[in-house]
Amino acid sequence: MSKVIKIKKGLNIKLKGKAEKILVKAEPSDKYAIKPVDFPGLIPKMLVKEGDTVKAGTPLFMDKNRPEVLFASPVSGTLEAVVRGEKRRILEVVVKADGKDGSEDFSKIKPVDSSKEAITGYLLAGGVWPFIRQRPYAIIANPQDTPKSIFISCFDTAPLGPDYDYIFQNVDPDFQTGVDTLAKLASGRVHLCVHTDYPPAANFVKATNVEIHQFSGPHPSSNVGVQIHHIDPVNKGEVVWYVNPQDVSTIGRLMNKAEYDVSKTIVLCGSEINTPRYYKVKGGCCMTAFADSVKTGNVRYISGNVLTGAHVAADGYLGFYDSQVTVIPEGDHYELLGWALPGFGKYSAGRTFFSWMTPHKEYDLDTNMHGGHRALVMTGQYESVFPMDIYPEHLVKAILAGEIEKMEQLGIYEVAEEDFALCEFVCTSKTDVQSIIREGINMMIKEMN
To answer: For residue 394, what are the contacts with CB-CB under 8 A and spacing of at least 6?
Structure first.
C-alpha cells in the first residue's frame, strides 16, 4: 500500500441509529423504479410503454443525447407507470415485479481477452454503463472518452454510512472481475481507496490490477472527489471515472454470468428505525419493504445519507447509486429562544452550545433548519470542513455571479455537490450550497458544448 493520506479538515456527525452488523433478506418489493432524476443532465427517451412486459436487463429508456447509454429494468415484470412532473419531465419509471426473476440473455466475454471498444459496447448493451461516472461534472461517463484513471472508494465516512468491509466480508469473485473490466477502459491505473480506521475486507486488500491507497481522518475523506484531489487531480481537458464498490460487483456479474443483476446490500439506519440492520435488496426497491422496521410518527425517509441523500416518500424508491436508507424525525416544529439556551443536549458543529464538551455523544437530529435564509457572508466556516486546496466560498460566489473563468480557476472541474455537503451543514446563512454547485456545473457543461 501507499503512504497514508491524512485528511485533517472535516467533520464526523454522530447520529443515533447505527446499524448492527446483521444481514437480513428484505421482503421482495412488488414494485421497483428507475428515476431519471438520479442522473444529472439526463434527458430520457422511453423505449417501452406502459403495459409492456420486461425482463431484468430490458432497456426502459435511453439518454436522448447519447442513445447508446441505456437504462435497464432491475426486475422482470410489467411496466406499470411513467410518472411525470412539471413540463412532463419523467420522474420515475415504475416496474411491477412478477417474481419470476426473468433476465435478458447476454453472451459472455472475458475482459482479459477483449479490447476497450468491445468491453465498452458490452457494458452499454448490458445496461451497466450508468454505474460509471466521471469527474468533471459528476455525471455518467462518456463512452467515447478514455479516462486517465478510475477510482473506487471502499469506505463511507458519511453519517451512519454503510460498512463496505462488512458488506464484502465474504470473497466476491465478481468484484475482481469488475476491477479487471474497468482496468481495460483507462489509460492509467485503477485506484482503490481504504481507510485506516476500518480493517479492509479481503476483496479489497487482495485485489489485483489496482493501486491501493490508505486514508485517515473525518468525513469527507470517503468522498471520491477528495480522493481524486489528493491522488490524481482533474485539470481542464482531463477525465477521471469512478464507480461504487457494489456497482463494481454488478459489472463483474454481467461479465461472469451474462445477466443483469442489481442485487446489493444496503444499510437501513437512523433514530426512527426499530432495529437498524443491513438488508439484501435489488436496486430501485420500494421503501414499503422496510415499513415494519420504521417507528410510528412523523418521519422522513432519505435515500442515502442525511447530508447528500434524497427525500423520498414512504412508498418511494431507492436511489440508483444509494446503499443506504436513513429515517429520522421530521423537523416541523419551532423552538422559542432555542439559540439562547445553554443547549447541553443539542448538537453544534462549532461551540455555540456546551455539547461540544461531549464529542462522543450520539444525537437524535431532525430536519429542522433552526433558522431562515440569511445573506451569504465570508466566515471561514466552509474552509474548516473542506479538505481540498480550493477556496469554497470564493467558488460559490463565482457561480452566483456567473463568472466562468473564475469558476475554472477556483476548481469547478474537481468538485461535485457531495463535496460541499458539510459546507451546507455548517453554514449559518442556511445557503443551499449543493444546489449552487450543481448550477455551476450545469453552466460549465453548457459553456463547453
So the answer is: 406, 410
